[in-house]
């Protein structure tokens, strides 16, 4: 799913890949007020699907994340945990890593350097 700005190209894109009992959600562009509803709508079916043990958000393609985006990540983590899923962030872009550090939210999330590492952790406690 994608938001598109004709003047600038894709403003936000989200896609999912399944890896056994884990789902990796790939984000690119800008996670902000306009794009958070797109992300939420894309994730909603995952929370209702049985058998998914982990939700991994690959953030390597994000160029921007505002306070609305951070709030949506926190809400997504809580919804995932209520659904019995482990929630992880992977491959933080420099921009997102800096925003998480500045806001003090870096420790609120389980963060992995790479998506492959996060997938290995799905089977560990």
UniProtKB/TrEMBL annotation:
InterPro entries: Anti-sigma_ant, STAS_dom, STAS_dom_sf
GO molecular function annotation: anti-sigma factor antagonist activity
Boundaries of every STAS domain copy: 12-122
Gene3D superfamilies cross-referenced by the UniProt entry: STAS domain
Taxonomy, superkingdom: Bacteria
Entry similarity comment: Belongs to the anti-sigma-factor antagonist family.
Cited NCBIfam families: ant_ant_sig
PANTHER family: ANTI-SIGMA FACTOR ANTAGONIST TM_1081-RELATED, ANTI-SIGMA FACTOR ANTAGONIST TM_1081-RELATED-RELATED
Protein name from the UniProt record: Anti-sigma factor antagonist
């Amino acid at each position: 799913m994608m938001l598109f700005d004709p003047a600038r190209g894709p403003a936000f894109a989200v896609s999912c890949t399944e890896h056994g009992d884990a789902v990796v959600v790939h984000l690119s562009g800008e996670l902000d007020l306009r794009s958070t509803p797109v992300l939420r709508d894309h994730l909603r079916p995952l929370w209702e699907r049985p058998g998914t043990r982990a939700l991994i958000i690959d953030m390597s393609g994000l160029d921007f994340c505002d306070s609305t985006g951070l709030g949506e990540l926190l809400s997504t983590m809580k919804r995932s945990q209520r659904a019995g899923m482990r929630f992880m962030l992977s491959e933080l872009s420099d921009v997102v890593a800096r925003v998480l550090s500045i806001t003090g939210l870096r420790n609120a999330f389980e963060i992995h350097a790479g998506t492959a590492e996060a997938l290995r952790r799905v089977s560990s406690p």
